[in-house]
Amino acid sequence: MDTLNLQDWVGRQEVCHADITATQALSMAVILDWGNTTQPLGQILPAPWHWLYFLPTPKSSELDVDGHARRGGFLPPVPLPRRMWAGSRIKFQTPLRIGDSTRRVSKIKEVASKQGGSGQLVFVTISHDIFVLEGDLKTERLAICEEQDIVYREATALGVPINKTPTNQADWSQTINPGPVLLFRFSALTFNGHRIHYDRTYAIDIEGYDGLVVHGPLTATFLLDLLRKNLPDATVETFTFRGIKPLTDTGPFKVEGCLEGSNVHLWALDASESMVMKAEATIG
């Protein structure tokens, strides 16, 4: 793998636009089983529902065998076959609202190669700055700053499972039963063609998981929804999450959390009570 060539992608930018329409927000509220799913014009978009917008739309002829777009283009052509969204760090500057017109500026910040338990890994860090276009659409305000980590790995066994337990006592807990319908609906909503989320044969026989993989951003969304349910008047100012190990649909999982001052500790546990995701939020 020519890591020097991959460094040529550092600094590359991409700009795209999106209208914050009610359709995606309503669909997310339905997936989360909200009692009131209406999303009127001007309503604040909950965190982190900005992930429902600015979606990549590769043509069918541009897809790779895993359902993702083929390497190259904006993201560097990392020659490792497995890829996943490993985590994010987000600052919510000002609210996005239903009806807003927005602009997102994305930039490749870093490409780093590491050696892990399952072989070679490449981490690609991307920054996304989302601006709300105001008035005559010639002025704008910064709404969200996010850094995303995308990890690429070899087509090898997943290695010895990592078993971590929470260090905090849960104030809140919710049990979620994942399954193919939930995962398919979220894949469809986010236009995510990655086959590990809906093609069980591919996920098990080709990528070596023990079931369908629950999307990392879906788990993170459930964590922030747990915060919303228990602190309905709080405003999320920052949110950080990191995937610890894959979560599959082979059993129910839990999202849990606790409040410590203005900090909210959040985590997700698989059916064996092992932590699969850890997150932190600050609220105002």
Largest sheet: 10 strands, antiparallel
Mean pLDDT: 93
**What does the radius of gyration come to?**
19 Å
Distance between the termini: 45 Å
Query: Helical element count?
Result: 5
Computed structural class = alpha+beta
The order of strands across the largest sheet is 1-3-4-5-2-7-10-9-8-6
Taken from the alpha-carbon principal axes, the silhouette is globular
Hey, roughly how much beta strand do the residues contain? Answer: 35-45%
Beta strand count: 10
Q: Helical amount among residues, as a percent range? A: 10-25%
Order of helices and strands: HEHEEEEEHHHEEEE
Uncertain spans, ≥5 residues at pLDDT below 50? none
What is shown here, in short?
Helix content is 16%, strand content 36%. By secondary structure, it is α+β, with helices and mostly antiparallel strands. A 10-stranded antiparallel beta sheet has the order 1-3-4-5-2-7-10-9-8-6, covered by helices on one side.
